[in-house]
Write a structure and sequence with these properties.
single chain, Protocatechuate 3,4-Dioxygenase, subunit A, 2 domains, 5-stranded mixed β-sheet, 20% strand, binds fe (ii) ion
Length: 311
């Protein structure tokens, strides 16, 4: 037997009441959003005949998700981070702004306060013995193609076990390992030496993974490197590059892969290259330029403020 009560005057009045719309106090924007989301949820329960058992299983899952600190992890997993990017893309299209370097999701693992290095940085501390040396370099450009001296390239990535410093469950990594802020030189050039990161997945058995499995999905990401690129007079770019050849490069649970963000990675063993970077053996090289977009009416109209870790 199925009943439908969502459209009754009693339920509609009740939704207005629980959202505070019959009260003068509170925050109007919060009330509006709460009313909309609660209405959609009530309607879904009604339409799908969600049973009390199903509902309480969902509440228990939310409690576990919060206790595990994984709201920021399931968010990209359910495509919401990518959806926000698609909306920013659409806004840019409306404004006639072209992003030659596409934006993509930030993810939850940025930490503010990384050491600042001029021009060329070493990101890793050499303790990840499984790491294959990586050199990545390029130029930060404005939308006219001119280099942007002094641009700030914030970079962060994981080790070969898929762990980020500050979030390493083994506690083995020093603070800010594989995290730096690189200041581009007079020609707008940035560069760094590190190791090629590996892909990683959501914690096994976690509430995030359990939901993804229930959806018939996985919780794995291809290897990638995160960036914020910013400079005076330009909008801050949030993006990632993928390591080409990773089998999951087009099967990312967080939907961060985008055309233009999978640069060629070249294996080099020539003496000149090894010497040029002061290395002791073969390395992988990625050349990648970041293109920034200009401010809109003097402001960064897409600057995202969100709670972030700092150390
Ligand atoms: Fe990541």
């Amino acid at each position: 037997m199925s009943v439908k009560i969502f459209d009754t005057p009693d339920v509609q009045a009740f939704l207005r009441k629980v959202s505070g719309l019959d009260q003068a106090g509170g925050d109007p924007r919060t009330k509006r959003i709460a009313h909309r989301i609660l209405s959609d949820l009530y309607r879904a329960i009604d339409d799908l005949d969600v049973t009390p058992d199903e509902y309480w299983a969902g509440i228990a899952w939310l409690n576990e998700l919060g206790a595990a600190g994984q709201a920021g992890l399931i968010s990209p997993g359910l495509g919401l981070d990518h959806f926000l990017d698609l909306r920013l893309d659409a806004l840019d299209a409306e404004l006639g702004i072209e992003n030659r370097t596409p934006r993509t999701i930030e993810g939850p693992l940025y930490v503010a306060g990384a050491p600042v290095v001029e021009g060329f940085a070493r990101l890793d501390d050499g303790r990840d013995r499984n790491g294959h040396t990586l050199v990545m370099h390029g130029v930060v450009k404005g939308d006219d193609g001119a280099p942007v001296p002094g641009a700030r390239v914030e970079v962060w990535h994981c080790d070969t076990r898929g762990f980020y410093s500050h979030f390493d469950p083994t506690g083995e990594q020093a603070p800010f390992n594989m995290r730096r802020t690189i200041v581009a030189d007079e020609q707008g050039r940035y560069g760094f030496r590190s190791i090629v990161p590996k892909g990683y997945g959501v914690p096994p058995g976690s509430p995030t993974e359990r939901l993804l499995f229930a959806l018939g999905r996985h919780g794995q990401r291809p290897a990638h490197i995160h960036f914020f690129v910013s400079a005076d007079g330009h909008r801050k770019l949030t993006t990632q590059i993928n390591i080409a050849g990773d089998p999951l490069v087009n099967d990312d649970f967080a939907y961060a892969t985008r055309d233009g963000l999978v640069p060629r990675i070249v294996e080099r063993d020539d003496e000149a290259g090894i010497r040029a970077y002061g290395l002791d053996g073969p390395f992988a090289e990625i050349a990648f330029d970041f293109w920034l977009s200009p401010l809109v009416d003097g402001v960064d109209n897409q600057l995202v403020e969100r709670p972030r870790a700092a150390a």
